[in-house]
## 1
Amino acid sequence: MMKKHMIWDLFFTFMKIGLFTFGGGYAMISIIEDCCAEKKSWITHEEMMDITVIAESTPGPIAINCATYIGCKQAGFTGSLAATAGIVAPSFLIIFWISRFLDNFLEIPLIYRAFRGIKIGVGLLILDAALTMIKKMRKKELPIVIMVSSFVLMFLINLFSWNFSSISLMTAAGLVSLAVFLLGGGSKKKGGAL
Amino acid sequence: MICLHLFLGFLKVGCFAFGGAYGAIPLIRDVVLSYGWLTDESLTYMIAVSESTPGPIMVNLATYVGSSQAGLPGALAATFAVVLPSFLVIHFITLALKTLIKKPYVQAVLQGLKPCIIGIILATGLYMTLNHCISFTEGYIFHVPEMVITALLSGAIWGSRRFQKKRLSPIALILISACLGVILYA
């Protein structure tokens, strides 16, 4: 009985998340954190950070990765199915309806105006998510150096539309961190200090 | 037959799209154009619609392309295919992660990846926000309505933290920004 309740809870929570996320993965992280870590306590903030890393380094939509992980953790395979189906359902229904019945969706004035507002909200939402993550970050030298340099590089990549993907940036950061760990002797003490 | 092609095409997208939707768009374009399903122009329109509707952009785009090619069965085939790889990969990782995550080498890599992602997210958010207010490409044009909305929303986020002692829920923020858009762009 309890488990059945959890399955429905997962489905509807992720349906809500799917219905209110605009603009892709990073904005989604903020909403998932709010619903699943803050309100429901399904996962910790630390775990949310781990999932973000895993989601970014595995293929596919970040939202699907997160939904599958959280669903699986809460209620096993059925849970992961419920959460994933939940997050896909609103997209599927809305887009299917648009593709069948609305030829010029983006020219509807109300939709166009609301979306111009939402676009600005999404930017701020992503900014807010990053600031919250920084507040919770461990304030040690290496993470701060990596964080600041990835920020500067990524900002320049955006600004000048350089053809350099965030995956290469992540690979570099992982390698630098591993190199520092190995040069530090790979001892447990050093590793913990990172 | 078209459904099978949709399934295989979007399975490829789901398998190789790293780093979110914007990384996936070139891949989707490649698949869609190579099968000759859509012209570049109608694909661009579909991308715009997928970005302006709720939900993961990749899922939206898969549903849209599938539906336009083969109705409901096509939409189902494409959507299922784009979701399947992530779903399986995460199950595999959760199984492997329990033992793997405790290894010091894995921890060392993760400790480098986390601050890197925070930096990337910060840069993306800041760039998006600035880019809405000021056009960089066309010689620094300031957009007043965008600046007003940015200021009002920032005020709402800050006010909620300061006076209500909690974060403004992202859903509330989206709803407020949609309303502001409807009012200010009238």
## 2
Amino acid sequence: MHCAHCGHHHELNVSGVRVRYRNILALDDVSLATSCGACVALIGPNGAGKSTLLKAIAGLIPLESGGIVWRGAKVAKWSREIAYLPQRENVDWNFPVTVRGVVRMGRYPQTGWWRPFKAADEAAVDKALADMDLTDLHNRQISELSGGQQQRVFLARALTQEAHVLLLDEPFTGLDRTTKATLAATLRRLAGEGRLIIASHHDLETVRDIYDEALLLRRSPVAYGPVGEVFNETNLALTFGPAAPSGKEVA
Amino acid sequence: MIDWLTEPLQHPFNQRALIAALLIGLTNGYASAFVVLKKSALQVGSLSHALLPGIAVAILVAGLHDWSAFLGALFAALLIGLGSLAVSRGSRLDHDSALAILYTAAFSGGIILLRRIGVTQEMDAWLFGNIMGLRDSDLWTNYWISLGALGILTALHRPLLMTLFDGEVAATLGVPVRSLNYLLFAILIIVMISSLQAVGCMLALGLLVTPAATVYLLTDNTNALFWGGSLLGGLASASAVLIGWHLNLEQGPAIVLVLGAVFLLAFVFGPKYGLISRSKRRPANRGGEN
């Protein structure tokens, strides 16, 4: 499939990635190959390396071995085309900044340290705010947002950045049922427009509804492929250990 | 009222003290916004104590000149700051513990050394400030430090705020997070050293935290936090110098005390985040959260 917004077909190739934190092996021999328009779920128990893989693709963590290639070029440090959306609980929501202020940060690769915002930059911000249904909230303090709105602010920042790849760390955690459904529809729409969505995901019941592909991860990949093929009892049992996935995560 | 203002200003040392208080308060007030947003008050405070042995050694080696104490203090802060990082990385101790060990040891060394090298009378000045003892050259030093620090911090406002809000996301957008963090810390230390003559190394932390912390209770606007902190720092320091003169109080402690009093007012009476308005709002808000 081609990206609706640029008409090209872009591929992400992760091959044999190994990441070590001091003495702890966090990722070992992780590979996946996917492209624009896909929605990929990263599934695995806590400590399986989901967040680490997202950060590695975002260029935040050095690889011990292996490589990550996006559009034929190695992802060495950071790329404007790859947006990273952190877990909401890792963000200081009391930070004195407005919705618009956060979304404007997405223009940093274009504006740099000093350059004032041009009309095109403001237009990109406005468009992203409108796209994420945040126009009315743009002057709100981020401390006054609900969980779903917080997640949409991050998405709007990624859109302002004009990113092709969106890496989301547990985007659905802590959202109520309706908000989850809205966010799922939004992610599907963004993938439909040709973006590549990769998200770590906890709630096993909703995987089939949201994602096209799944990587079942336990430091190394247990299985990777279309959700219909790899997301099954056998692979889940292998991913979550001899004891079946803990009731909390299934429920 | 006018007399209250003009009478002290007939003395040159009061004029110098007032200008210095304005400059130092302004710069420290602006920088305090970074300390509050960085949530690193205690780290900065530890380093303020670590300045003392640097000053002592510098006086011992080079005598007391305009820049010797400044450079000695800077070197000590650098040594303790980087040393604590090295200790925490090279052992199983966390960074805060490492910093606590190094700065208390350094501070003790500084006290013992200062007492031995015949500047005992000035001990109080190093610990609590002596803004009346300023010379014209000290004013110029403060002026250049203020100008440099404010210039750099304002120029790097955008990437610095992104770093403080979320360093990881900032890094994925191309912000040189690690370098900026080091630079910010270096500037904070330099700004703090410039405040030593006003408030000394025991009280420097007050001037480098309280102004923006107070404004933080009053506004959600980022610019207001920086410039409001700056204004509050300058005004509070200047008025404390006058109050100190009239009431015959030590000016260094007076500055920090005035700031503390303003903070208390904001904490209790702040229109949005004050104690009173919060307790009034709470019952109505219950259950209404989403």
